[in-house]
Amino acid sequence: MKPNILFIVIDSLRADYCNGEKKTSRTPNIDFLIKNGVYFKQAISSIDGTFGSLGCIFTAKYPFKNNITWSKNHNKALEFFKNIKSHGYSEYLATPANPFFKTISEDFDDKDLTSNVSYLGLWEGIGELILSRLDDGNMQSPWIYYTHIMDLHTLKPLPEEFNIPKYGKTEYDRRISLIDDWLGKFLKKIDLSKTLVILTADHGEFVHELDMHPEYVPTLQKFFKNGQKIAPDFLTPAGIKIFESLRNRIKNHRVAKHEKSLSTEELRTLTERGHGILFDEVLRIPLIFSGYGINKHSVITQQVRHIDIIPTLESIIGKLHNGKTDGRSLMPLINGESMDDLPIYIESVPKLDDLEGDTIGIRTSKYKYCRSRKNPKENVILFDLESDPSETTNLASQHPSIISEMEQSLSGITSTSENDENDENDDELSEQEYTKTKNELKKLGYI
After folding, report:
1. Residue 385, pLDDT score
2. What letter does residue 283 receive in the DSSP assignment?
3. What is the per-residue pLDDT across 48-66, written as a single tens digit (0 to 9) for each?
4. d(CA 317, CA 7)
5. E strand or H helix that includes residue 58
6. Do residues 196 and 109 share a domain?
7. Which of residues 250, 270, 290 is at a domain's end?
8. How many domains would you assign to the chain?
9. CB of 305 within 8 A of CB of 413?
10. Same domain membership, residue 56 and residue 91
């Protein structure tokens, strides 16, 4: 019997806020999945951006191999979905209508691509849509259902019933509590003895009180949203420009204020991903396998990689292809056996019009090493993760021998593998799609 697969990615969910001392959210359903499965406490994304990280998951290759960015090479993630379909699986999806998701779902049996102009939360109809799909008979078994949850990635005000201390100290925690509440509703619709649940995140996030965020402007959002209801359509472009102008003025004022009142460590929580050091806040993500094929509960502290997810899935449902990957199955760890502790390649998400991010590096269980992609001598960072888990002290100048070892490890990963850069199947967005997507990202505050 082939199991059904519920594949859940919670955008921007940090591992330490999912399970650990920092967590103040209420997550009985995530806890249930962990108690009925395996939780990898040190799972690491190779890149701090959504499409690059999803590319790593579904190709089981490092980002410099698949070259998937926000606008290019999305079809390189298609192989997994084509293979699992040929393996007898029906395919379904509920995600924002971004070009990446449109590409990977082109041959799905059915899909729900929702608005990506203003990401919808579970409470805004997405949760009900997922519940409807999970009802008996709405998917042909065996099925794989991929859902990408955006509730941590939107700056929309949280529903009042969850925005209280009972659900967490910060709004980020309270959003996790809301997501968990919906997860409980989803789990009631499935049979874990026949369904494998994979829950992870694409990347982490810098967490802070949301009202400190330079671009959090709920009052302004509400004002313009109400204005849209009564204003004629031809005024919408002008309204968007006015909104962006006012938001930028508020952002600049807040940044100047924070720089005077916050410590260096506190200020880094206001950093945007892709624009600085690859702290664990943006790379360390939860990874849970629960249900079918997972016969015992365990919490695994050895570091593992996003690129290991699909090889592990293949160990449970059967090999899907014979292609070369950078990932490996984690089933030996799940079964209590030992595996070598491999270094993990990491890089920053590319700026919108670039193919490559500015920063690359290596993470081991002991150290994190980062540097400029173009010049190994620039922006060199070395953190001792055991003695300095908060990554506050750069030891690069004190340990040239360790830097040399880490550089050799980095070179070993990047130089011995073939690069997919010249594949004939590379795709990129049309000029119209490119402009539309860029404008959507601008509205959401990415540009």
Report:
1. 97
2. H
3. 999 999 999 999 999 999 9
4. 14
5. helix 50-59
6. yes
7. 270
8. 3
9. no
10. yes
Q: Are residues 46 and 158 in the same domain?
A: yes
Classify residue 138: in a domain, yes or no. Answer: yes
Residues 315 and 191 in one domain: yes
- Name the more confident of 54 and 67: 54
pLDDT digits (tens, 9 = 90+) for 368-427: 999 999 999 999 999 999 999 989 999 999 999 999 999 999 999 998 555 544 444 456
C-alpha span between 83 and 3 (Å, rounded): 16
**Dihedral angle of Cα 43, 47, 53, 58, to the nearest 10 degrees:** -80
**DSSP letters along 154-195, please?**
--SPPPTTTSSGGG-SSHHHHHHHHHHHHHHHHHTTS-TTTE
Measured CA to CA, the distance from residue 197 to residue 143 in angstroms comes to 12
Among 270, 287, 316, where does a domain finish? 270
In whole numbers, what is the pLDDT of the chain averaged over residues? 85
Residue 178 in domain: yes
Its pTM stands at 0.84
Give the tokens for residue 272. 């945007």
Whether residue 318 contacts residue 88, with contact meaning beta carbons closer than 8 Å, is answered with no
The pLDDT tens digits for 238-257 are 766 776 677 667 666 666 66
| Phi, psi for 370 (deg, rounded to 5) | -135, 155
Q: Are residues 333 and 202 in the same domain?
A: yes
Same domain assignment for residues 114 and 197: yes
Name the one residue in this structure whose structure tokens are 């600049």: 252
The confidence score (pLDDT) of residue 206 equals 79
Assign 214 a pLDDT band (cuts: 50, 70, 90): low
Contact 156, 121 (CB under 8 A): yes
Query: Tokens for 225?
Result: 């949203």
**Residue 128 sits in the same domain as residue 150:** yes
53 and 169 housed in the same domain:
yes
User: What Rg do the C-alpha atoms of the chain give, in angstroms?
Assistant: 22
The length of the chain, given as a count of residues:
447
Largest CA distance in the chain: 66
Residue-range definition of the domain harbouring residue 407? 358-416
How far apart CA 74 and CA 440 sit, in angstroms, is 18
Assign 318 to helix, strand or coil. Answer: coil
Kindly give the residue spans of alpha helices, DSSP state H, lying in 232-388: 236-261, 264-267, 280-283, 309-317, 331-334
Q: What is the pLDDT of residue 318?
A: 92
- Does pLDDT of 31 surpass 70? yes
